[in-house]
Structure formats: C-alpha cells, structure tokens
C-alpha cells in the first residue's frame, strides 16, 4: 500500500464547473486493465479502501462501496506496477466523472478524471500500458 497519508482536496473557489464527458468522450483513450488496492481521500471523510479496474493517461476506474456524486473532488493513491518489477507510487487529484452500481463488481464503478498528470506519472502510466 502507498505510505502517504491522503490529504483531502480543498476545492478551488475560482474553478469552473466540469462538464460531464459523454460515453464516447470517456472511452476515446485506450484503457488497460489494472486491478490493485488503492485508497481514496474525500474532503472531511476518512480515507476509503478501494480497488482499481482500469487506467489510462487521463484517469482511472475504481470500485467503491460508496455512491459518489459526479464532480466530487478526491485524491487517489495506489502503486502502479512497472515492467521491471518496480512500482510507481501514484498520488493524484481527480474528479468523479460517473458513478454507477455494478452487481457483477459488487460495488459502485467510478470514473476518475485526473486533474493534472505530471510528466513522471504520465511516463509511468504509458510504460504500464505498453507492456
């Protein structure tokens, strides 16, 4: 598990509302399956233990026990495996783009769009996706 303590995000008071991507916009970028344990921090709440199910350079899909409203700000923390056997520690701010209950996954499937993707994280994600 990631050694960092998640710090909830404080909303940017000057931020403009996010538009909800359409189903085709959300799936425009290739995704790769990723099943690892993770943590999610929400403002004013204790961290949630979650699980990822896919990733791409723009975001990550996770499974939670909690139904999260669209536009919810959060931080997500997980270890992204790399081809050389090491792990890249992902600590990213994100926004919920969609949340639906999945009976087969026994929880809510949540799409998180990364707010910013530093070059090192982008490199680690692209490396993971190519292998």
Characterise this structure:
The protein has helices spanning 23-26, 119-130; strands at 32-33, 37-42, 48-56, 59-64, 73-81, 87-102, 107-114. By secondary structure, it is mainly beta. Strand 6 and strand 7 (107-114) form a beta hairpin.
Features:
single chain; 131 residues; mainly beta; Thrombin, subunit H; 2 helices; 12% helix; disordered N terminus
Structural class: mainly beta
The helix content is 10-25%
CATH topology: Thrombin, subunit H
CATH class: Mainly Beta
Coarse shape: globular
Low-pLDDT sequence parts: 1-27
How would you sum up the major sheet?
Answer: 6 strands, antiparallel, barrel
Discrete helix count = 2
What is the multimeric organization of the chains shown?
single chain
How many domains is the backbone divided into? 1
Gyration radius, in Å: 14 Å
DSSP strand count: 7
Please, what is the average pLDDT? Answer: 85
In CATH, what is the homologous superfamily?
A: predicted glycosyltransferase like domains
Distance between the termini: 22 Å
Query: Strands of the biggest beta sheet: in what spatial order?
Result: 2-3-4-7-6-5
Query: Judging by the overall fold, what is the CATH architecture?
Result: Beta Barrel
Which percent band covers the strand fraction? 35-45%
List SSEs in N-to-C order. HEEEEEEEH
